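Example 5.3 — Hydrogenobyrinate a,c-diamide synthase
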Amino acid sequence: MVTVHPGAPWALPRVVVAAPASGHGKTTLATGLLAALRRRGLTVSPHKVGPDYIDPGYHALAAGRPGRNLDPWLVGEERVAPLLRHGAATPTPADIAVIEGVMGLHDGAVGRRGYASTAHVARLVDAPVLLVLDTTAQGRSAAALALGMAAFDPDVRIGGVILNRVGSPRHESLLRDALAEVGVPVLGAVARAAEVAAPARHLGLVPVAERAPESVAIVAALADLVAATVDLDAVLDLARTAGPLRAPAWDPVAAVGGPAGAGRPVVAVAGGPAFTFSYAETAELLAAAGATVAPFDPLRDPGLPAGTRAVVVGGGFPEAYAPQLADNATLRAELADFDGPVVAECAGLLYLGRHLDGVPMCGRLDLTARMTDRLTLGYRDAVAVTGSPLHRPGDPVRGHEFHRTVTDPGHGDRPAWRWDGAEHGFVTDRVHASYLHTHWAGHPQAARRLVEAASR
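Solution (predicted structure tokens):
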């Protein structure tokens, strides 16, 4: 096992799996790579660029440890490398970190010149890029594309490519010859007929927690695929070319300033198939602030965990489970009357309302919600409007939205946030609920304030 002094530079082998655009097969190859390396007996640390919650679930299944996000928009540039180091060292030091990119290599926050892009994160963590190319209907142009991706930002080092959806042995030979001309190594080639894919839904892949047996089989198939088509030794050699990781590891205790309040109040955190969207650092920050974190499943648990003093209900797909959530009437009634602080993001907001697509929910908030055909998606620069268990009025917060539902009304008399000249969300004496997803590593005071409120 690797031994690493927390403050010393760490020669952590690491590689970023990227692509010219979405749909080239990043998640397929990254997940398969994690699983194949783990089969070799390596301890692998999985990471995802951006705010995605679903891909890290597949990563976690493949690697056997939490999948973690690296997002400069949500946590700040200065925390990206420390969070990588923390994740790669927790619970044990990893032999290699695999970082899956988001969208195209150079695509980031709109209008911010690549900020929060995969390329931006690759620079921040000083890691080489393994480029996945969908070669459908492409020949020599694949080499021009790889060369252009590398030349666009000379500070991003493309160390090799994986050819995906290759049509035939002749097609593969043509592609390899063209890439050799421009000096880009080919580290693997996946035939079009061999590709394995996870099932999708309106917001992306179906989360692992919703279909565990099938997900295990898919990850095993991806490991087989990558082991048979990718030169794992070459990938390891590429990952070892990353420079020493000099940033100290992110520390949740230091981030929150130690325990807040007396005792260890129980903070119940929703999970299960309907509420799968959560960052690993949320529970770590709550525990560091002095809470006892207790998971519960609104689909199955008849009540909150014993001694619950605060509740966190994050994102997920309640619309896919609305009848089952409605059937758990005892838990809905308990949440409607719960007298401690409640924090809800997106799916949690819908669950606290009166109805979702006509199906009864908790009734804690006077709103109804329904599915639409319109996707609301993007990063948000928000300011807290109303004081709450999470934030003081005027606190700046960066987050993101990702949903196809709308609420009526769109916000409460005491809104949670303001951005783009409009008000959003709902705040009552004890509830903070909105569509905005935030990463508490970027705003650790939220965890501390919640535990302080629970202690009171």
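Remark. The two ends are 43 Å apart (CA to CA).
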